[in-house]
Each structure stands twice: as C-alpha cells, then as structure tokens.
Design brief:
Blueprint lengths: L3 E7 L3 H15 L5 E7 L6 H8 L6 E5 L6 H11 L4 E4 L11 H9 L5 E8 L6 H18 L11 E4 H5 L11 H7 L3 E7 L13 H21 L9
Parallel strand pairs: 1-2, 1-4, 2-3, 5-7
Antiparallel strand pairs: 4-6, 5-6
Helix pairs in contact: 1-2, 5-8
Length: 238
Amino acid sequence: MPQLSVVVPVFNERDNVLPLIGEIAAALRGAADFEIVYVDDASKDDTLAVLTAAKADYPELRVIRHLSQSGQSTAVRTGVRAARGEWIATLDGDGQNDPADIPRLIAMRDESPDTIKLFAGWRVNRKDTGSKRFASKFANGLRSRLLRDETPDTGCGIKLFERAAFLDLPYFDHMHRYLPALMQRAGWQVKSVPVNHRARGSGVSKYNNLNRALVGIADLRGVAWLIRRSKRTATEEI
C-alpha cells in the first residue's frame, strides 16, 4: 500500500496533464511509496484520453472519472475516498503548484507533533494577475477575521493532510477553501508552509473574481455557523 496519495482534480486541462504527472513522479520516485490519483470532473476536451494513455508510462497513476461535472471540492473528495495512502497531498491540475514542494511538506510533517493534521501551502510570491492577487488578499483577510483560522492562504491547492481526518470533516461544495477552519473545528492543528507558485502554462482559469465572491459569502456564513455550533468533549475509556 502506498504511504502517500497525490490527488489532482482536473477539468479541461489536457495540455497540463503530462507535464504535471512527470513532475510528480520526478519529485517522489525514490523518496516515498506513492500513487497519483487524477479525478477528471467530466472534462469536455480530451483530458480523459490523455490521462488514460499516460497510465502506460506511469504505473503509479490511477484515473477516476466523474460522469457529470461536480466541482473541485467534490473531485478532491472523490480522490481522497479512492486513495489508499494514509496521507494525502493535493495539487491543482493547472500546473501552478510545484510538486517539488511535496517532499518538503512531508519532511515538515515528520518533524511535527501528531496533533497537526494539515500542512497548508502558502503562496508567498504569487504568479497571478493583479486583480486575482487583490481579490485573494481581500478574501483571505475577511475569512481570517470571521473564522479566526490564522491561515494566510486557504486558496492554495497544494496541501498535505491525513486522509482519516479529512474524511471526518463535514462535506459541502467549495469545502476545500475552508480546510484549515474545518480541521481546527475538529480539534486538530494546522501549519502554513511557504511554497512555490508558478504562472499557468496552458489553458484558462475556471474561476473569476465575481463568482468566487458570491459563493464565498454564503460559504463563510455557513462555516461560521458550523464553528459556533460545534462541541468537543473529552472522553476516557473505563
């Protein structure tokens, strides 16, 4: 069984698939027992065909297909549920996250207490447009004030977390943007780790600032409610 499962959700990313798989394999072969779980969210291009062909060159690769488009959070959860590793690393499928950061996250996990179940990437030098950087800074500031999750960048796609802890969290669409707050709600600690960030090499972003903002307002209210209504009780076995 692999020690680590790398989960990558994709939608219409056919030109980014092979370069990213090659980088994941180069970063982890010889460093960890791993598998790569790609979840194709019902792409309309030939992303699925590229992934299927890539299995011949990458025995670590597994491919799961959504029969209908369901969004990034659902794709991540599909991949985590199918994963066989005890720990999960996630990457965005657009190639902006650097797989070379995964061994660094693993090394940090190995020297950290067991109470830390999420190591969240922090894009300190973002390679996005000015409008995206401004929108992200505003959203992160608002979320941090409301949820008090003490996490500077929840939108970064590269994360390392324990599979069991993730599957114990409440599931809802867009939950991937609130993992630090949800992990803390469950009683676990979170550590933010500076990571590399790259410009998109091919394709187009699947989000814009407006739709992120409209969805984010409702999500913030919902997560804040979950935190207010949570209750943890210490137990002992007699």
